[in-house]
Amino acid sequence: MPTPQKLLCRIENVIDHGEHVYTLSLVPQYPPAPRFKPGQFLHLALDSYNASGFWPESRVFSIASSAGERDKIQVTYSVRGKYTARMEKETVAGRDVWVKMPYGDFIIDVGGPVVLFAGGTGITAFTSLLSELPTGQHCQVTLFYGARQRQLLCYRSLVERCRQNVQGFGAYYFLEKEGQLTENEIPGWISMDHARRLITDPLQAKFYLSGPPPMINALSTQLHEMGIISSSIHVDAWE
């Protein structure tokens, strides 16, 4: 794994998705950012850092941008707790922040059947991978992506590009608060009740879960009840 580096970054853009969910586009002072693998995460600090001192208070976020495009770094977060509430107030275009990256071993093996479960901003553990799926080769990747409402499926356009261009890729959306559903949309929370009938040969698949703890705990229990062994279930515990 690459050695983590500390980077001063300028916030280029802030996208407000509504419901206190935001995407930050960060530009390193001295690009490119260090190499990283899809699924890894970074530490983001709002306070200034001096190399002779301690690293300031920070929070971890999955690196949502492509590992092949390192001139910019993208993270998406939901306001939960004091630190992200502070981020909501202070992260504006033109401001500098500090980043320390890369970290983590939540690396997805697409050499066989793979099932991804993403709740809310948990999708960012998968977006770097999705942006790099080969269009000329067949892969066996199925994504279940859930949010409270349609506007919070922040990376739906990326998912749809994969559906259109990547052979063997399938995607389904769980929506908690939408009454009128369209193609590939499923009502309610992410659960195996609906998902299991859409998974081909689940005993041969590897499962990757990223999202809120209640979702991860429920899905892990349901997968074990289906006979999925622990070594085939991988969790990105981002909260």
Number of helices: 5
CATH class of the largest domain: Alpha Beta
What about the largest sheet? 6 strands, antiparallel
CATH homology superfamily of the largest domain: Nucleotide-binding domain of ferredoxin-NADP reductase (FNR) module
Shape summary: globular
Low-confidence stretches: none
Number of domains: 2
Radius of gyration: 18 Å
Strand/helix succession: EEEEEHEEHEHEEHEHE
- How much of the sequence lies in strands comes to 25-35%
Secondary-structure blueprint:
Blueprint: E1 5-18, E2 21-28, E3 41-45, E4 58-62, E5 73-78, H1 82-90, E6 96-103, E7 114-119, H2 124-131, E8 138-147, H3 156-165, E9 167-175, E10 185-187, H4 192-195, E11 206-210, H5 213-225, E12 233-236
Parallel strand pairs: 7-8, 7-11, 8-9, 9-10, 11-12
Antiparallel strand pairs: 1-2, 1-6, 2-5, 3-4, 3-6
Descriptive overview:
By secondary structure, the protein is α/β, with parallel strands linked by helices. It has 2 domains: 99 residues, Elongation Factor Tu (Ef-tu), domain 3; 123 residues, Nucleotide-binding domain of ferredoxin-NADP reductase (FNR) module (Rossmann fold, 3-Layer(aba) Sandwich), CATH 3.40.50. The protein is built from 5 helices and 12 strands. The strands form 2 sheets. The protein has a 6-stranded antiparallel sheet with strand order 4-3-6-1-2-5, with helices on one face. A 6-stranded parallel sheet has the order 10-9-8-7-11-12, sandwiched between helices. Helix 2 links the parallel strand 7 and strand 8. The longest helix is centred in the last third of the chain and has 13 residues. The chain is globular. The two termini are 23 Å apart.
